[in-house]
Amino acid sequence: xWELSENKSTPIYQQIMEQIITYIQDGTLQPGDRLPAxxxxxxxxxxxxxxxxxxxxxxxxxxxxxxxxxxxxxxxxGNWGRSTIPRVDWRxxxxxxxxxxxxxxxxxxxxxNDPEAVDLYSGExxxxxxxxxxxxxxxxxxxxxxxxKQSPLGYRPLQQVICQxxxxxxxxxxxxxxxxxxxxxxxxxxxxxxxxxxxxxxVAIEDPSFLYSLPIFATAGIKLYGVEMDKEGMRxxxxxxxxxxxxxxxxILNPTFQNPTGSTMSKKRRxxxxxxxxxxxxxxxxxxxxxxxxxxxxxxxxKELASHQVIHLGSLSKIFGSSIKIGWIVADRxxxxxxxxxxxxxxxxxxxxxxxxxxxxxxxxxxxxxxKDLVVELEQRAAAFIEAAQVVAEDWDFSAIDGGIYVYFTxxxxxxxxxxxxxxxxxxxLIAPAFLFSNDTMAMRVxxxxxxxxxxxxxxxxxxxxxxxxxxx
Length: 473
Prior knowledge:
Elements: H1 12-25, H2 38-45, H3 49-62, E1 65-68, E2 72-75, H4 90-95, H5 103-111, E3 118-119, H6 140-147, E4 150-151, E5 154-155, H7 156-170, E6 179-182, H8 185-196, E7 202-207, H9 216-220, E8 223-230, E9 233-234, H10 236-246, E10 248-253, H11 267-279, E11 284-287, H12 302-305, E12 310-315, H13 317-320, E13 327-330, H14 333-345, H15 352-363, H16 367-388, E14 396-397, E15 406-411, H17 422-426, E16 429-430, E17 432-433, E18 443-447, H18 453-472
Parallel strand pairs: 3-16, 7-8, 7-10, 10-11, 11-12
Antiparallel strand pairs: 1-2, 4-5, 6-13, 8-9, 12-13, 14-15, 15-18, 17-18
Helix pairs in contact: 1-3, 2-3, 8-14
């Protein structure tokens, strides 16, 4: 138990600290447990006693352990000693490098406000497609009254509407105490990482996946392992290999109109995934932010197929834009309670105001019709886009668009490099290359919904020009 790695370059006293913190976090050491005496620890670790004293002094200053006269060193029984409560490893934050910036993204973001640029990178609907609704006037006193309808899980009227929509769309009976309102889907993901995982744990995701571009995993010390996809979705054989070799703790995926490929996992593959997760007792996190943008019938959600095995994430940001930053987690009561406690501990409270706006939008009498009109408009834009895309079919592979907001283009010729994608920036054509989502450099994500008839023609003219230059290169 009291042994250190011989290959680490970290100072010995820090290794001792890290090991004791890990034992406290994973429950090997419980609150109130007494550590071996300093001399004993020095013998176990085969180091000088002064090194052990240095490590224990640091742990005392950070609140992990206490020195008691006559009792030696014990694990703190206060908040910092409770292994069930998520905590930040401050020391690792001080020593780790900041999240590296992607040079391509920095250049792209400088062009986002250029009126000549064609923006097919942004992950939102254009403003003219966002469903409209009338927001009633509120006095400050009325808003304060609405504040009283808040619970630790969120604004109760909004929770109830979400439960109703889940029942109608996914045929699942969900109660309000199984729904936690968050400030968008990313906050939901962050809470899950804090409560369900520890630094160094491994997570399986799709490859390619937008999750690679989120810094929250690196900040939390979580290792991401991509699972190859085919036409039916995440390959189960490849996933099982990872589970066995990388000790996967969690599976996170976006099965419907996946970001960035726009593909949808088949029902057969969904059932296989659930069977595998049951075999290895691994929870699944299902990100379903695009499912309401479907042109035809889609397979049942993973949550519908296995209610207790799946944690469901939803959001309004794809329909109403990032201005309504409201998301939610649907899971079993025990997990929702733990997530709620973590949310309160980290002071991730959400003002009632955006929740009232979200509730107003979802209960607006015109919402259902507006939603249908949006889907019709998206289907028309998708059909027009695919028809126009035939002019580049010799150079790019792409599939039909069945819903969502993305289409994936794959280059059909020689291997592309990151430098080749700079041509798109030079032409002010803003797209998302595959290397933002994986190690691949041969494809790009395009948000087709942002194109009007005029800009669609402009896009394909520029893409033809770029394709000729790429072939020459």
